[in-house]
Amino acid sequence: MAMQESLVALRHALSIIDGLDFATLIGSRARDDARPDSDWDIAVQWKNNNTSALETLSRNERLKSVLAQHLACEPDTIDIIDLKRANLTIRAVVAEEGIPLAGEDDLPWMRFLSRTWHDLEHWYLEQEYAA
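Above: the chain sequence. Below: its structure as C-alpha cells.
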C-alpha cells in the first residue's frame, strides 16, 4: 500500500473511533524514510483521560486492531503512544514532525501544541540560564 493510500486508510479508521481528541503519525513513516518492515507509530490523545491503566490499555489495543484491519497489517506492527503519559521529548516529536490524522482542526490539538511549545521553551530557558 502506498503512503498516500495508507494515510487515507488511517484517517478513515480514526474517523470511526469514539472518544479520540486527535491522532498523529510519527516516526519513520511520517518522515518518509520507512523500510517495508517499519512499524506504524500513532500518537493519540483520548477525550476521557480519567481511565484506569487497564482500561487505557484495552482502548489502545482495540485501536490497534481497527488500524491493522484498515492498513492490512498485523496489530503488532502498530505502536500506540498515549500522549497523556508521554514525556516532553515525545510530545515535541509529535508537535514538530507529526502528520495529523484526526482532530487537527479542533481545540485539543491546538492546546496540545501550545502546551508542548510552552514546555519546550521553558526547558530551553532552564538549560541556558539555570545555575
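The mean pLDDT is 93.
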